[in-house]
Write a structure and sequence with these properties.
Keywords: DNA-binding. It holds the Pfam family HTH_5. This is DNA-binding transcriptional regulator, ArsR family. InterPro entries: ArsR-like_HTH, HTH_ArsR_DNA-bd_dom, WH-like_DNA-bd_sf, WH_DNA-bd_sf. The protein is mainly α and about 120 residues long. It folds into 2 domains: about 60 residues, Arc Repressor Mutant, subunit A (Orthogonal Bundle); about 45 residues. The protein contains 5 helices and 3 strands. A 3-stranded antiparallel β-sheet has the order 1-3-2. Strand 2 and strand 3 form a beta hairpin. The longest helix is centred in the last third of the chain and has 46 residues. The termini are far apart.
């Protein structure tokens, strides 16, 4: 079964594995030692990350090393960006409305003070 990057990052353990190997390649044992779950459970998480392309495993002698391939996260970034643009425009409109509404009473107060001074 081909998994997608959204399934991979849905799990907090997999997100933490990505964090661990984002800047340095680690072997499976070193990764497993960072968690309070069994080595088979970590292997299953790494398999899922590999299936969606976020992790590349290389064999060096008897050791298997995991390296992050974060290009797939571009898909997530693109998906999030459409909502960032949407919410930014909505929040900007709200800010303009609130600023306009906040300025209106001050403007009315200023006009009533001028009228009082004229009399």
């Amino acid at each position: 079964m081909r998994r997608d990057v959204f399934q991979a990052i849905a799990d907090p353990t997999r997100r933490e594995i990505i964090n661990l190997i984002a800047y340095k390649t680690m072997n499976l044992n070193a990764i497993a030692e960072s968690f309070d779950v069994s080595r088979p459970a970590i292997s299953k998480h790494i398999k899922i990350l590999t299936e969606c392309g976020l992790v590349v495993i290389t064999q060096q002698g008897r050791e298997r090393y995991c390296e992050a391939n974060l290009k797939s996260l571009g898909e997530v970034s693109h998906w999030i960006e459409q909502y960032r643009v949407f919410w930014t425009s909505k929040l900007d409109a709200l800010e303009r409305f609130l600023n306009k509404d906040a300025a209106a009473p001050a403007s009315r107060k200023h006009k009533s003070t001028k009228k009082a001074k004229r009399k």
